[in-house]
Every structure is written in structure tokens, then in C-alpha cells.
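Format notes (please read before filing issues)

Several people have asked whether sequences and C-alpha cells are stored in separate files. They are not. Every record keeps both together, in the order shown below: the sequence lines, then the C-alpha cell lines. Line labels are part of the format and must not be stripped during preprocessing.
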Amino acid sequence: MIKVSETAKERINQILAEENTPSDSFVRVGVKGGGCSGLMYDLSFDTALSENDKVLEDNNIRVVVDKKSFLYLVGTELDYSGGLNGKGFVFVNPNASRTCGCGESFAV
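Then the structure lines:
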């Protein structure tokens, strides 16, 4: 399961409305190699599902994760920070053994 915080939900809905995305759009979350810690989060909007996708829903937000990435993301919370120290989506991943300073990459 991937949880979506209330602030992330509000920001996702705001972006969807501002960008006039199709009504069947969902949040795609993935993991790819790279970054200073070895693995990077990948976050985007999408409308196409593949056979290797896992479809989840939390807080009325549809989240799609490919099965390989899901292994790294089980129990993760997607949050949004709009503070003075930076704006953006934040992954709170209990599976990460270490993260980089910017929070965009991690290791398990």
C-alpha cells in the first residue's frame, strides 16, 4: 500500500485542474536506478496502464506502481511540503536504509 497525505492529495488535485489533465489520469510512482544513493523516485501523471501495473487508491487518489517498483515502495507515504526550505513531493519510505540530502534518492 502507498499512502497519500492530505497535503499531497490537495496538491495533486490542484495540478490536475491547472493542467487540464484527462479525467482518467492517475499518479504513477516508480523507482529507477540513479541518484547519489543508488535509486531514485519517479513521479508523473499518466493515463495508460500496463499488465505489470498495480493499481492502488488512497485518500481518493489513484496511484499506479509497476510491480518491480512496488517492492521498494510498500508502506511509503507520499506527502507534499510547501515550506520555506523547499517545495515538492516527499516520499516517506520505511524501506529506505539511507536517503540523500535532497530526498530524491535512496538505498535499501
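For reference, the curators noted about this record: The mean pLDDT is 88. The longest strand covers residues 26-33.
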